[in-house]
Amino acid sequence: MERNMARFNVIEDAVSLEEIVSLILASLLGIEKDTSKSFGNTSQALSFNSKINLLTDLKSIEKDSAAKFVHFAQIRNQFAHNVYAINFVNCLADNESCKNFLKKNYKEFFDEHQQEEVQLEQMYHALFKDLMSILQRSYQLKLK
C-alpha cells in the first residue's frame, strides 16, 4: 500500500510546528515545558488554537499572522481526521475559504497550466515556511 505523502508531510509538519509553539510559549511564560500539563502531550494539554491565541494575547505574533495558523490548522485537521483527504485537492474540497486564503496569499504559485494539486501543495509549503518565519521572529522578540 502506497503511503499518502501529502497527509504524512502535513502531519509531520504539524507535530514540529506545535512543538515549537509550545516551546516558545513555555519560555515566554516561564514554565518548564517538560513537566507542564498545558504544553505536554496528553489530553490535558492546550489545543493548538489555544496556544496560538495565547501567542496573540502575549503580542508575540500579530493577529494577521494568527489567521495563517488557523488555516494551517484547518488543513492539518482535514488530513488527520478525514479519511477522504488523500491529497490537497480532496483536503480543501469542502473548504473554499481556506483554498481562497491560500490563493490570495500565495498568488505566485497560481499557474493555470499546472495541476491544481501541485499549486495547492506549493501554496501549503509557502504557508508552512511563513509560519516557521513568524515563530522565528516571535522567539527573537522574546530574546530582546
TrEMBL record:
InterPro entries reported in the protein's UniProt record: MtlR-like_sf (IPR038026)
UniProt-recorded name of the protein: Transcriptional regulator
Source organism of this protein record: Pinibacter soli
Lineage per the UniProt record: Bacteria, Pseudomonadati, Bacteroidota, Chitinophagia, Chitinophagales
